[in-house]
Amino acid sequence: MGLVDTIRRVFWLLPVLIVGAASLFAAFSSTIAPPPAGSALFFNPRPRQASSEAEAALQRFLAAEDGADAKADAKADANAAEDAAARLVRLGGAALPHLLERIDSLPPDQARRLADALWPIAERMGSWESETLALTDARDAKRSERRLEFWRDFRDEHASDFRPLVVQRLVRRLSARDLSLRRADLLVVDTYALPALIDQLGRVQTNADVERVQRVAALIAHVRGQEFRGQARSVVAARRLASQLRGEWDREGPDYTSLNGVEQLAASLSQTEFAIWVRRSLRQLTKVDDSALGERLARGAAISAPSFLLALLGALVLGPALAAWLQVLEMSRKVPRAGRLSVRLGLALAVCSLLPGALLEPTASAFWRGSLALLAGTLPSTFLLSHELGQRVDWRTHRLLRRRRSWARVRAIWRWLGPSLPTLSPLVAAEAAFAVACLEIGSNRPGLGLETWRAAQTGDLPWLMLSSLALGLFTGSTQLLCDAVLGTRRFAWWEAD
Amino acid sequence: MNTALALLVAWLGALGVGVSLGRLASDGLRGRAVVNLLIEARGALLPFVIAAMWLTLPQLPRWLVIGATAALVQGIAVARWVLRHDSDAAGLAGDIALGHSGGGISTRHAAARGAVSSTVAFVVVVVCALEALATRWSPTSAPTGGSLGAWMVTADSTVWLAWVLAALILVGLEAGTRALISGRAAGAVSHLLRSAARRV
Fold it and tell me: Taking CA atoms, which of A119, A169, A411, B46 is between 20 and 30 Å from A337?
């Protein structure tokens, strides 16, 4: 492989990584780690947004209310109406621009019911707990009428507040300083402010960031109708809280977001399981989010790395050296012809007993584990390369080299063996990882292998993706490096010499 | 019986996948890039993860899943060996002089080497390891009827017999693969058929 080929393959690494990640995601999702029912994997033909969710909830609410009035299965319809009303309240301010537009197009009776259903939002906004609107049940009709009037006035007065830029500016100011007046302004738009609030969580590194997260998280909890319990006093706790809120937003966010034409097209791709995984992974990689996965990876790597490196050392250094030594012995006629089969059988026996043998030992010591890893790398490599060398040295070469000095025999063998090592390297990376995984499963040590084994059993998609991509990237880089080495002028000269 | 079936699938599969991929790559059509991609995919997925994915399909028997996994893993490795740099210039020059295609010749030369037959024979190790892992995964539903891997993790006094059997199979598969690739197996079969015909 020439220099141009090497550069071309380096540039191809990123597209290959993206396509590989998508393929792995599809493979895992369709087999061992199925996504939540009804979710789109790569393309969402009907992306969600606040207005469509509000309209759907409104239709359910009106249908259920009409059903309850008709007294056909009245109890079930009343429950359905309650659920739909609760959904409307959860959607909150984000749904108001659409619902308040629709309220005038409804028949008066339905409009009044909708005004009643939306009333908890007004209470959440905080400024409208007036006595006139909290009337007794005996005057329900009048109360509903006044609530309807309230929502109509609200629409006219606050139309200019429900604009993304206005809300973003407000949230920026509020997250910088605790201003009670601004807070009241923000509560007017309720969940409409959620996208801007989530954006303001940002990266958490200093005490000022901790205070900002506290303020923003308290507002988020309020507009979502939850009690704020996530007191975060330290940077670590605040980052964890921000990560948790962003994680929830990944799935719930579309319900509170308004989309224009182009954004709707983009949402077909962004409101998918794959896009959610990519966003979370990027946030964790750039340390914006707290990464439990990253900590697990670091812990697992600290346990697995010594065994993995020993297996690689065995496969790429000891194995070839042992294979070369066996070949030199054979050339010197120190190994009788009949003994060659015994050597191969012995090697085969050692190889075959190794992997299952490792699984037999549940409480292996560190020395035993290290030795097993070293042997798991060395023996298969010796078995393979000694056969490769044996096939290369035919009777003519044998006779020729036997007459030369032993150093000449070693050089000749190394010249045959040399090109095989870059070919072998990307293959043994996978084999070493498998051997180490078997060792960890056998000794129940929580390294990368055992974690992957458990992830395959439980369908832990993030871990499977992480471990597979890391291993694939390692193999790909090794392969690229080895192919570049094989294509160098020096290596070509060595081979031809 | 389970291991025998898995080994048969794995051996034939690895040989077929490896040599076909090698031939495809050496004949051009961006085949080398495909093999490079497959090597990366092989590195990314540990064999038990591949097996776990296939085991979600209830209609596939366990021996087929284990055999196919071993075939895929070792077949891709074979393809890399088939595509390796070859310095048998003298033999190549002779074949080219006889008018054979360069790609075909280099594939045949590379495939006839020791590393290929050893890599194919390693399906035994992958099959046994997967069977052993399957036994640990769910001991109740593990393959028990003639499963070498399950025998290897039973920890009874006869376990060494399982190792010896596996080693014999490994060496036997290696010799068989070599004979098959170099055409000696076909020659032996045709010789047997001819001698049988003469007797008749």
Answer: A411
Q: Measured between alpha carbons, how far is A286 from A277 in angstroms, rounded to an integer?
A: 14
Residue type, A489: R
| Phi, psi (degrees; rounded to nearest 5) at A453 | -60, -45
| Phi, psi of B134, deg, nearest 5 | -60, -35
Closest CA to A355 of B148, B68, B43, B114: B148
Mark residue A225 as left, alpha or beta (left: phi above 0; alpha: psi -120 to 50; beta: remaining): left
Query: B interface mutation test: which of A355, A392, A448 has the most B CBs within 10 A?
Result: A355
The number of beta carbons lying within 10 Å of the beta carbon of residue B183 is 12
Instruction: Please give the Cα distance from B1 to B6 (Å, whole number).
Output: 8
Q: In chain B, whose CA is at the least distance from the CA of A1?
A: B85
Q: Over chain B (200 residues), what is each successive 10-residue block's mean pLDDT?
A: 88 89 71 83 90 86 91 92 60 50 57 80 90 74 67 76 86 86 71 76
User: Taking Cα atoms as reference points, which of A273, A336, A339, A284 lies closest to residue A41?
Assistant: A273
The tokens for A190 are 């309720």
Higher-scoring residue by pLDDT: A112, A141: A112
Rounded to two decimals, what is the model's pTM? Answer: 0.81
Percentage of residues of chain A with pLDDT beyond 90: 21
The residue of chain B with its CA nearest to that of A477 is B40
Q: How many CB atoms lie within 10 A of CB A40?
A: 17
ipTM score: 0.82
Task: Indicate the helix (H) or strand (E) that contains A57.
Answer: helix A50-69
Q: Nearest by CB to B39, which of A23, A464, A475?
A: A475
Task: Check if the beta carbon of residue A40 is closer than 8 Å to that of residue A272.
Answer: yes
Cβ of residue B74 closer than 8 Å to a chain A Cβ = no
Q: Read out DSSP for A191-250?
A: GGGHHHHHHHH----SHHHHHHHHHHHHHHHHHTT--------SHHHHHHHHHHHHHHHH
**Residue A247 to residue A243: CA distance in whole angstroms:** 6
* H helical segments located in chain B: 2-26, 31-44, 47-55, 62-82, 89-97, 102-111, 114-121, 123-137, 148-152, 159-182, 184-199
Evaluate if residue A351 carries a pLDDT over 80.
Answer: yes
CB < 8 Å to A433, chain B: 43, 46
CB contacts under 8 A, B 8-67 vs A, are: 36-37, 39-49, 52-54, 56-57
